[in-house]
Amino acid sequence: MTQEETFKALVAHCKEYGFIFPSSEIYDGLAAVYDYGQLGAELKNNIKRYWWLAMTRLNENIVGIDSCVFMHPKTWVASGHVAAFNDPLIDNRDSKKRYRADNLIEEYLQKIEEKIEKEVAKGRKRFGESFDEAKFRETNPNILREKAKYDEVHQRYLNAENNNDLAEYKQIILDCGITDPISGTRNWTDVRQFNLMFSTQVSNTGASDDKIYLRPETAQGIFVEYLNVQKTSRMKIPFGIAQIGKAFRNEIVARQFIFRMREFEQMEMEFFCKPGTEMEWFAKWKENRMKWHVNLGMGAENYRFHDHEKLAHYANAATDIEFNFPFGFKELEGIHSRTDFDLGNHQRLSGKKIQYFDPETGETYVPYCVETSIGVDRMVLAVLSHAYEVQPLEGGESRVVLHIPAPVAPVKVAVLPLLKTDERLTSKAQEIVDILKYDVAYQYDEKDSIGRRYRRQDAIGTPFCVTIDHETLEDNCVTIRDRDTMEQVRVPIAEIHDRLVKATSLTNLLRNL
Description:
Layout: H1 3-16, E1 20-22, E2 34-36, H2 38-56, E3 62-65, H3 74-78, H4 81-84, E4 86-91, E5 98-100, H5 101-127, H6 133-139, H7 141-163, H8 166-175, E6 192-195, E7 199-201, E8 211-213, H9 219-224, H10 226-233, E9 239-248, E10 263-273, H11 278-294, E11 303-307, E12 317-325, E13 328-339, H12 341-350, E14 356-357, E15 364-365, E16 368-375, H13 376-387, E17 388-392, E18 398-402, E19 413-417, H14 423-436, E20 442-444, H15 450-460, E21 464-468, H16 470-475, E22 477-482, E23 488-492, H17 493-504, H18 506-511
Parallel strand pairs: 3-9, 19-20, 19-21
Antiparallel strand pairs: 1-2, 4-5, 4-6, 7-8, 9-10, 10-16, 11-12, 12-13, 13-16, 14-15, 17-18, 21-22, 22-23
Helix pairs in contact: 2-13, 5-7, 5-8, 7-8
């Protein structure tokens, strides 16, 4: 299957097995809004727990809060969202579809990169072990032609971004011959700015001064509570405040399943430090966050840093941790040095002093801040897309398996009596459930043949299956089957609790950080 076909199969699999459903599907759904089913909710909660404990339990100088979705409207004036939280919008007059102009250009550039990589792959196949990739890239005329085209368009794109030149966005699209994927035409409107914040009213009068926004990020809840947290917890600089919560963005084009949605969840941490030390902390948090990702065991080669060429209005340094999704390397987590932009602006607009007094040096200053921000939904998609495999078996058969890292898997173990008609086996299986249920997420399944039950557990990513058979009644041992290797071992019932807890424990995963 192609990557696109695999991705479509994954989306269908998520619905079929209770991970993720289109929201309001009985009413034909709501674009770019999804609900988490019974297994998806468990997976999502496990990922959040892994992040929360890594932040707040493993760092004595980081505490967590839970701020509200609704905030005073001046919050978003101070943060710059009212004035600057926009995307460049373009419409195709024939299809009546709406697009982000920057995304159209980025996709065009990505296609050029793909052409170059295909040319390199041909060279590698042609020359074998003697292939010199660096020299090939420097001398192959096809690559040089595509590279020159890429560099020209990329530079124009950067200039348009830096200058907020909407007319140049459109001109790049026209000059590159970018067509609408639906109508196939180049009948584009002018590019215009589109504010991404959802608005509503806080009362039923409908007056203009009742206007309030759904938060587009969770970070501002941390900034406006900085003083309360610092004083009540008696935190000393440097320290951090972490939060997990919902955010809302009226995306022009929400796509790629749960990668880009209008309602999503973020895990953000703001680390406050002394001005002048922010770049040191920026480097440390880059290393810390990459280690957290790689620790899940999904392959270090599937992650990379991408430093921002254009910085946001609040940052003096920024990088993304990108993950190799089925549709290419895309942003999974952002790490930003936000300077004192947020606290300083809130201080000016509110009239309240938001400063830190250093008792050791006698200095008073507005702290600088380094932010780490990861989308929970994107993290779920990263885990699922990496885990999904259609694996060939002997005899021409295959199985669908989710290789979800055991500590975050929604179900850790399946307890399976060999026959549901034998009360001795089902009774013994219930005894094992009673042993495991307080510490290990389990499923009890007695329907269908044992082979079909194994396949069902493979499909939802259950790392281990415990089978109770007639030998169990004699030797008090069970068979534990490993999801990934399909190997089976006999284990005494007295040992299965400690064995499974060790293999699936979030605590042991955290110990590796």
